[in-house]
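Changelog-adjacent note: as of this version, every example in the card shows the full chain rather than a window. The one below runs 240 residues end to end.
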Amino acid sequence: MKPVVGELRAFFRASLISPVERKRTETPALRLRRRIVVGVTLALGAVALGLALSVRPGDPLFYPATLGVAALWVVGSLASGPLRLGRGRTREGGVSRGVLQGFILGLILLSLFLAGALVIAQIPVLRAPVEGLLDHARFGSLWLVALITAVSGLAEELFFRGAVYAALPPRMNALGSTALYAASTLFSGVPLLTFAAVCLGLLTAAQRRVTGGVLGPMASHLTWSLGMLFLLPPIFALGG
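Full-length structure tokens:
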């Protein structure tokens, strides 16, 4: 048992706690530019996301609407200034890109959410809004929704763990980027989506702090979001 606990402790320390050493500085002008671009993009993106999620399930407008939100995040990210992929630290002290770590962390978060879904499925007031989100996959093309989910996840990480994180002061960039990410989902009208944004945001912000880039967070986000898309409906059916 002790070797397993030790391996887990080493994994979480490498992936979420101990930052990879790096020296990067940004000029005040670039930091100001980031903050202006991030502020405008965040306001537009929150409204656009709320409008996209309000589209009736089965309506073809849902696809361009959600892709439009993703495009907005990407444009805002690129316009804010240079972003980095980052470098992760292995348990042995070596350096990697952090993709495998991100995948494993995404699986852990996915497992926790699927376990919680069994409980939520028994509570109508919580289940109903989630069912509304899942209807977009039920009444539309599941694989097209999966593609959009993947694109949106990458775009969100590029913006929130890339541009937003870099724009905030070092002492508050992890919590601040998570709070803004959660706030962007408020117009969706789905409280559990905001809760998910907080959990996912805290996880990926910790990865961003360790790696200094967006690649690890992207791996976690894709694993979690695609896993929820394909596994949440059967879990709900089981719980119902």
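Structural remarks: The radius of gyration is 18 Å.
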